[in-house]
């Protein structure tokens, strides 16, 4: 059995300002976006669409706003509305953790729609372009959750080699943030990046990311203590699974639509 290392959430301080590991994980996520984006614009089918490094820098600003605002609003509205409405000032304490991927996903879609309109690009092309750069950033965020000892897992069999004693929680637990970092983030990236290296019908890459993440998240939710849970036909369904199901269904519809439009794919709308 393992014991959570329970590190200090403050990585270092600059005078009176504390720099938290959780915030550094977001800096890492945005850095990975830029690094992977520069690799992506070198791919022949991406370069043929006219993507440039300047686009990445501009998109990152919009994306950061979408991630932070959407992620925090998602946490407030989807997971802990009663707590945050009773303690509204805590909404602004993002360094303590508490960012919803589903909220951030919606926030980024809105931000990218605004960027696409400004840049006169088709939103579906933008989604296809950025989708492969998202999973590793997500993985960095889950590592931040682990450092903050957030999102404890369900009770685990003590004989499980990686069962973990979690700070402030009774009994051995599944280290669910690490599960989600590995499956929802790294494994999704390993599958999606090679898929996106080849020319695909418009929206296929974005839809594939949505499908892979939705399925991965639905699976890892079985090991995480849910924020809330409902029962459907006698089967318990967690909050994360409720939010992931529309992603899975929507992704299947989008994939079917994308390949039905093949082989023609205009570069610009």
Automatic annotation (TrEMBL):
One of its GO terms (molecular function) is phosphatidylglycerol-prolipoprotein diacylglyceryl transferase activity. It is a multi-pass membrane protein. A 1,2-diacyl-sn-glycero-3-phospho-(1'-sn-glycerol) binds at residue 142. One of its GO terms (cellular component) is plasma membrane. It comes from the Bacteria. NCBIfam families: lgt. This is Phosphatidylglycerol--prolipoprotein diacylglyceryl transferase. It comes from Telluria aromaticivorans.
């Amino acid at each position: 059995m393992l014991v959570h290392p329970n590190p200090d959430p403050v990585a270092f301080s600059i005078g009176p300002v504390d720099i938290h590991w959780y915030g550094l994980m977001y800096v890492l996520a945005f850095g990975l976006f830029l690094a992977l984006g520069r690799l992506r614009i070198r791919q022949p089918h991406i370069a043929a669409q006219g993507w440039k490094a300047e686009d990445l820098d501009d998109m990152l600003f919009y994306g950061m706003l979408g991630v932070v605002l959407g992620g925090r609003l998602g946490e407030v509205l989807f997971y802990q509305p009663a707590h945050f409405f009773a303690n509204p000032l805590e909404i602004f304490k993002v360094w303590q953790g508490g960012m919803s991927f589903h909220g951030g996903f919606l926030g980024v879609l809105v931000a990218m729609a605004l960027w696409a309109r400004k840049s006169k690009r088709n939103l579906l092309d933008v989604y296809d372009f950025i989708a492969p750069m998202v999973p590793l950033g997500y993985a960095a965020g889950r590592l931040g959750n682990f450092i903050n000892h957030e999102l404890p897992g369900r009770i685990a069999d003590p004989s499980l080699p990686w069962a973990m004693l979690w700070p402030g929680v009774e009994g051995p637990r599944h280290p669910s943030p690490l599960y989600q970092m590995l499956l929802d983030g790294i494994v999704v990236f390993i599958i999606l990046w090679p898929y996106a290296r080849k020319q695909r019908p418009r929206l296929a890459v974005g839809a594939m990311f949505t499908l892979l993440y939705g399925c991965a998240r639905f699976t890892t939710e079985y090991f995480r203590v849910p924020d809330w849970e409902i029962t459907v036909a006698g089967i318990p369904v967690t909050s994360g699974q409720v939010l992931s199901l529309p992603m899975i269904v929507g992704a299947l519809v989008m994939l079917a639509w994308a390949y039905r439009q093949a082989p023609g794919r205009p570069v610009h709308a």
